[in-house]
Write a structure and sequence with these properties.
Structural class: alpha/beta
CATH class of the largest domain: Alpha Beta
Strand order of the largest sheet: 1-7-6-5-4-2-3
Number of domains: 2
Strand content: 5-15%
Amino acid sequence: MSDDQLKPETRALRTGIHRSQFNEHSEALFLTSSFVFDSAAQAAARFSGEESGNIYSRFTNPTVTALEERLAAMEGAETCVATSTGMSAILACIMGLLSAGDHVVASQSLFGATVNLFNNILKKFNVQTTFVSATDLNAWEAAVQPNTKLFFLETPSNPLTEISDIAGLASIARKSGVWLAVDNCFCTPILQKPIELGADIVIHSATKYLDGQGRVLGGAVLGSRELMMEGGVFSFLRTAGPTLSAFNAWVILKGLETLKVRIDAHSRNALQMAQWLAAHPKIERVFYPGLQSHPQHALAMRQQSTGGGIVSFEVSGGREAAWRVIDNTRLVSITANLGDVKTTLTHPATTTHGRISQEARDVAGITDGLLRIAVGLEAVEDIQADLARGLS
């Protein structure tokens, strides 16, 4: 049976296995900085690309390759390039594919560090960005300029879980001659396949659900071989060096083995949590794609298979009330990470989006009363009781 015929949970366990001479069952961990050649001629052939094979773990390592092959199979991508973090995946995509003078159209509903990357770092290299509504297709089309090369978005967005129409944006991108890149961190390939919907590039922070237990950092860029390899993403990583370590790749490989069962459980718990929050008198609004009250609920249910594990909600009383909820918890983890088996809680306005301007937060709808909970695998009733203390 070919990989194309396997279901996602099977691909997460059986793709990318290359056993060594010891015929190990679990994937081998190759902790080595470099690889030995049989001769000077072979070394020259490896470095020139005439012969395939491992050279140096900054850009070739069997454990990292196994992760890349497995994740590519799960996303339905031709190839994958692993990176040291999710942010380095975004950076590699931009630096590998764009040039000074190019233009990007991006969602205004992005992770705070991503906004800062576009606004503060890439601008220094004369890559300009126009931010538009994540949900307004007309705004994306109107923002296209002659030098536009890339559409960039995350869906669902962080933290308000706005849903962008990937197929609709892919149609505009093709007509405009630009690439569409989708950050698939919240959904993972278990819930959403951007490439099947027309995206050219998929971005991951493997630190989140792909690892799933808050252990290591990692990232990935996926797409066609032309874009990933010949197009420049791999070339940038090989030279600049923000690549994934073999150990972190091995940990994430182990995480992928349980991704399907974890995502299913996260989604069930998150829906139950969202419904409970929506009925609470101290909560003004709940943001969760699985609720019918979500503005893009119908689109989410066509584009994703469930609502996912992230719920955001506005507490009556602004920042003081939101901080009271956080400070009265005894069980959940007060941390800005997400995608962990343990429930995490954060105040986006002062953490994940604290370094962007107040104006940018206002445009993105990130209020002082907003909290984001990444619902873990504990008993939902225990998490609800933990939050209830600060909401009483």
